[in-house]
Amino acid sequence: MTPLRSASEPPPSPDTARASQTKKRTRIQAEKEARILDGALEVFSRYGYRGATVDQIAAAAGMSKPNLLYYFRRKHDIYLAVLRRTLAMWLQPFEEIDAAGDPAEELSKYIAKKLEFSRTNPQESRLFASEIIQGAPQIQGVLGGELRALVERKASVLKTWAAAGKIIDVDPCHLIFMIWATTQHYADFASQIEAILPDRSKDDVIDEAYGPLTSVLLRGLLPR
Amino acid sequence: MGAERAIEEQGPKASIREENEKAILDAAEEVFAEYGYSGASTKRIADRAGIPKANLHYYFPTKEGLYRKVIVNIFNVWLEAANALDDSNDPREALTRYIHTKMDLSRSRPLGSKVWANEIIQRAPIIQDYLETTLRAWTASRATMIQRWIDEGRISAVDPRALLYMIWATTQHYADFAHQITTLNEGKELSDRQWEEAKRNVTEIILRGIGLPA
Q1: Longest CA–CA separation in chain B, Å
Q2: Nearest Cβ partner for A191 among B33, B120, B205
């Protein structure tokens, strides 16, 4: 197998040197991109997509506008990259739900990670929610493409569990929505939660949410 | 003069006022949901309502006042839904009705829910005082009631506020994230049958989750 594959590869050329250079640049590039996205998150959260400008984002990222434009050509690209990064963060533990695993364990792991993001990345969650509330004008393509494909894959895992009697028979999509809604609530509705119980710290709120969320969802799902 | 005016206000004029106010509030709900508070203008709302801007300002002198009215309206609708919790002393029946009504409202009044969510996401710049008074007091009273059910052994022990948040988050998700739900549903809005299933599934999970038969 191996020799065959390498035989089909193009012969080494001067390009190789450039390729390795590109690789090196990629790490720096990734760091710069992350800096831009962090700055952009602040700016978009504050001014919305329409209100934000590339100048503001460059300033927030601590770099010049031409430098920023080298990485992202337009405001739209930056915005999309911020939202995609949020989705990637959320979907990794979703992807990890293992059909062969124990449903209680798999789901509580997922709920815990999802809730943890509401502690560590609440701003991302809120920006994403804003975009959806407005009718997803910018990320429609991502939702209909990658997200939908992944939800379908994971829904089939939940269906398998239901068919095997490991969880009750509910439409997997509604279960997935419930997990998303109840975990993201602690980021998106944080200001409401704070207004209701002002003497709790942000960390306490999340710590205290974990138990009730998992116990209600799991007891709700597992056969008695 | 006084008597004449009183008669007039109860007559056709009062109903014109009501109609105009309703048209403005409906338009405002749409525009605020779409553009947020800062992105919305009273001009746009007046256009959407099909009335001159001056008329809008006659009924609602400021954008903020109009906005608060929209927010308080949806909140009152939700409060009414929660009457189900008071009307029945049976936790299963009370919670089922509450969840069902909240789900129905997410379908019939999604815009109000979105305006509310937008405001909260923006860290409640306009209605902070409202949250700290009305919402806090109301939540405390519901939490007491849920705690009583727990103390009486009628539902399993759970932080009452966490349970309320679960119900709010789940039911409002169907309004606030409707666009995502539609996209994941092959681009089609949930059908009647799918809504019924959503209500049934969500209610079943929550009720079983606190030890009640679904």
Answers
A1: 64
A2: B120
